[in-house]
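Contributing new records

If you add data, match the layout below exactly. Sequence lines come first and carry their own label; structure lines follow with theirs. Keep one chain per record. Anything else will be rejected by the validation script.
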Amino acid sequence: MSRPARPPGLFGPLSWELLTQGPLEFVGGLARRFGPVARFQVGWVRYYVLSHPDHVLQVLQERQDRYSKATHDYWLMSR
């Protein structure tokens, strides 16, 4: 059985691009370079960036029960 395709993006240790750009420029650059679904990795944590409104709607409203918010980052933001 084959694994599902992963979205394109930046891999490996913290990207120099993230250090040399502001966060919004970095995320916007991911969308421009890799399309509506991209990912990047900081340390061992993978982040997925959705830039198409239909994808955001699906994650936040239509199928929110399929996406876990039980993450360390969500916990930090909720404090």
